[in-house]
Amino acid sequence: MKPLEDYLIVDFSQFLSGPSASLKLADMGARVIKIEKPGTGDICRHLYTSNVILNGESSVFHAINRNKESFAADIKSENDKKLIWELVKKADVVMHNFRPGVMERLGFDYASVKAVNPSVVYGEISGYGNEGPWKDKPGQDLLLQSLSGLTWLSGNAGGPTPMGLSIIDMLAGNHLAQGILACLLRKTISGEGALVQVSMLESALDFQFEAITTYYYDGKLPERSERNNAHAYLGAPYGIYQTADGFMALAMGSIPQLGTLLSCDALLAYTDVAQAFHQRDEIKAILAVHLQTNTTQHWLQILQAADIWCAEVMNWDTLMQHDGFKVLDMIQEVQMNDGFKYRTTRSPIRMDNALFTSAKGSPKLGQDNDKIITELSK
Amino acid sequence: MMKPLEGLLVLEFSQFMAAPTAGLRLADLGARVIKIERPVKGEAGRQIAIRNIFVDGSSLVFHTINRNKESYAADLKDPEDLERIKKLIRQADVITHNFRPGVMEKIGLDYEAVKAINPRVVYGVVTGYGNKGPWVLRPGQDLLIQSLSGLAYLSDTNDAGPVPFGLATADMICGAHFVQGILAALIKRAKTNKGVLVEVSLLESTLDLQFEVITTYLNDGGKLPQRSSVKGNGHPYLSAPYGIYQTKDNYLSLAMGDLHKIGEAIGVNLSGYTEKTSWFDSRDEIMTQLTEQIKHKTTAEWLEILESAGIWCSEVLTYEQSLRHEGVNVLGMQQQVTLPDGGSLSTTRCPIRINGERLYSDVAAPRPGAQTESINHQFDLA
How much is the average pLDDT of B305-332? Predict the structure, then answer.
C-alpha cells in the first residue's frame, strides 16, 4: 500500500515548481488531477528543451507530469467552473502557482475553497511572496538565482555563474511537498486543514542557509577560488581536477598528506592547516599540474586506500553503464494512453524496501474529462 | 499557532548535513528533535567548519543546521547507555541515521531490532549510494556525489570542464526528500498502525534533481548535455538568450522569451532567426551578438527598457545587495537564536509558511548532552 493512496489532489499549477511537488505526491500514491486550460493546457507542454519533442509535447512536460490525470476545464466558463468546484469539494489538497492575486480573481483562493471544504490543505507557490516590491515579478528560476546571491557560488572567481538547471523551482516544489505532507499528517489526527505557502525566493535563501548565516556572522561575501572552484567557503584541495585521461573530484585531505600520497613534493611545505584555505589558489595550481601526470584510476587507487574522499567525474553515459547506477533501478518506462512509451526516472524515496514506481505516462490534455465527469455525476 | 508536527518525537542519530537538515525542517514544523550524540565531543559535524568559524564550541555550520534541537549524550557501545536509548526509542515516533550500511546492525539498532522495541516506529536512513552495489561503502560526500551523478556537466561553459554546484546541493536535496519520505510514512502509519522503513540516498536524490534533463537524455538518442560556449549561459538545454550578460556597470539576467521581441528591445537584429529551433541551435552566435550590445548600457537602463517591454529579466545581486533589499526584507527570512551564554546568532528561518504565519524559533543548537539530565528525568530513563 502506498502512503497517500486515498488522497485526491487538485492541481492548478503549471511549469515546474508546483507540478514537481504533485509528482512527488503522486508517486507516493495520491491521485493528482491537473486542471488545464482547454486548447493549450499547462504551458510547459510546449516549453521545449534542446528542441526535443516527444509525442507532440516537450520532454520536460512528460518528465514532470507522468502519473497524473488531466482535466481540461475553462475556469472562466460557468459550466466548467461548476465541475471544478465539485472536484475541489472532494479534494484533500488543492494547489496552484499563479502570481499573487490571480487565484482571488479566478475564485478558487484559499478562503473560498475553505468555505466549501473546511479541512482542505491548500498549497501555493509564489515567486517572491505576496507582498513587497518584487511580488509581481515573474517567478522564473534564473531571475531567482540572480536576485538571491546564488550566482556567486559556482564556477571560478570572476563573473556570476548560474547553476545549470532549474534548481530553485525544484527546491520550492520540494518545500511545498513537505508543507503539504506535514499538514496532511496533522489532518489525520485533528481533521484540521491548512494553508501552506512557499515562495521561490524563500526557498532560494533556505538553500543557501549555511552561506547566508556565515554572511550574517562575518559580513564577508563569498570568494570563489581562482581555479578548480567547488565551494567558495572551503580550502584546498576541495575541487575537480583534470587527470591524464579524465577528471576527478578531491574533497578532503591535509595538504602534506596529499603531497606524500601523491608523491608531490611541492605540497609538503604547506604544513599549517590555515594555509589550505588562505593559499588555496597556489595549492590547487600545484595539484592541477601534478594530477595531469597520471590517470584517474591511478590516483583514486592510492587515495581511496588511504580513505581520502575522492571520486571519478562521470557524465550520464559513463554513469549509466556503471553497476553503482544500475543497482539503483532508477530508470523506469512509462506508457501514455495512446500507447507511446518513454523512459524517465522514478521517485527517489524508498519505503519498506520497495521502490515507488509507476507505469503511467503523462496525460494528453483533457484525456480524463469523461471519466471525471462520470465520477462526479455519481 | 499550533505547528503541524507538534507532539511528534524524533530521535536523530544522524550527523553532518543531509539528515540533520531534515531534522531541522521537522523541528521547525513543530516536532521535538533530540540529537543522540556521543558524550563530550558530540557529532562529528560540530568540528566541520567553513572559514574556520566556531561559536560556543561548535562550528557555525553546525549551529545553522542543528538549531531548534535538543542533545542527549550516549555512548552506543556502553550497554547501560544503550538500554536508556532503547527506552527512549519506545516513546519515539521517528528515528533517523546516516551511518554506512552495517553500523546500526553492529550496535543493535537496525530497523528490525528497533521495530521489536517499538512496532510503530518510522525508521529513516540516509545513505550515499543506496544499500547495495559497488559504491555502498564509499563516503557519501556531496562533491563526490555531484561528480558521479553527471551534475557537474550542466553549469558554466562547455570548455570549462566539469563545474560543480558551489554548495552542498546533494545534501540539501536529499534532506528535502528525506522529510517527505518521513512525513508520508507517518501518514501511512496513521492508517496501518505499523512501523515504516524510509530510505533515501544522496545519489538517487541528485539524479531526481536532474529528472527533467535526464528524461530528455533518455529520449533524445542519448545526447549528452551541450553547454553553450558563451560565458554566463544559464542552462545547457535552453535556447538563447537564457543567461547572464555583462553590462556597462554590472550584470543582467535574461530568461526565456520571444527572441525577436528581445532583439528589438536590445537593439540587435535577430529577425533572421525565423525558426524557433534556431534559437537553440544558433544560441552561441545569438548570445555573442547580445553580449556585444548589452555591455553598452547600465543594468538600470536595460531593466527600464526590458521590463517595460514585458521581457523577463533581472539584476544580479550579491548577498550584500540582496539581503538588504526590500524585496528580501519583506519576507522576514532572518531570525535570531539565543546562545547558551546569552549571546545571539542570526540565521534564516524555515521557508514554509502555515496559515499565513512564518515559523520562527529562537532555540540555538544545543551543547553536546545539554538535555541529557532533563530527558533522563522526563522519560524515566535513569
Answer: 98
Tell me which H or E stretch contains A31.
strand A31-36
Domain contains B17 = yes
- Using alpha carbons only, what angle is made at residue B237 by residues B317 and A61, rounded to the nearest 5 degrees? 105
Instruction: Evaluate whether residue A219 is within a structural domain.
Output: no
pLDDT in the model for residue B54? 96
Please indicate whether, in this complex, the C-beta atoms of A316 and B224 are within 8 angstroms of each other: yes
- Do A16 and A155 lie in one domain? The reply is yes
Instruction: Say yes or no: A125 and A272 in one domain.
Output: no
Same domain, A361 and A253: no
Task: Say if residue B95's pLDDT is above 90.
Answer: yes
Total structural domains within chain A? 2
User: Is residue B359 in some structural domain?
Assistant: no
Are B242 and A142 an interchain contact pair (Cβ–Cβ within 8 Å)? yes
Mark the ranges of chain A whose per-residue pLDDT is less than 50.
none
Residue A82 structural domain: 8-207+327-377
- Helices B169-192 and B18-28, axial angle in degrees (round to 10): 50
Same domain, A138 and A12: yes
Q: Which residues of B touch A146 (CB under 8 A)?
A: 244, 251, 253, 314-317
Q: Say yes or no for a CB contact (<8 Å) between B200 and A349.
A: yes
Q: Is the full-model pTM beyond 0.80?
A: yes
| N-terminal to C-terminal alpha carbon distance within chain A | 26
Q: How confident is the model at residue B1 (pLDDT cuts 50, 70, 90)?
A: confident
Q: What percent of chain B has pLDDT over 90?
A: 97
Is residue B1 one of the residues assigned to a domain? no
CATH of the domain at A178: 3.40.50.10540
What's the pLDDT tens digit per position in B107-123?
Answer: 999 999 999 999 999 99
Give the closest residue to B186 by CA, choosing from B380, B375, B14, B5.
B5
Number of structural domains chain B divides into: 1
Per-residue pLDDT, B382: 82
CA-nearest residue to A3 within chain B is B188
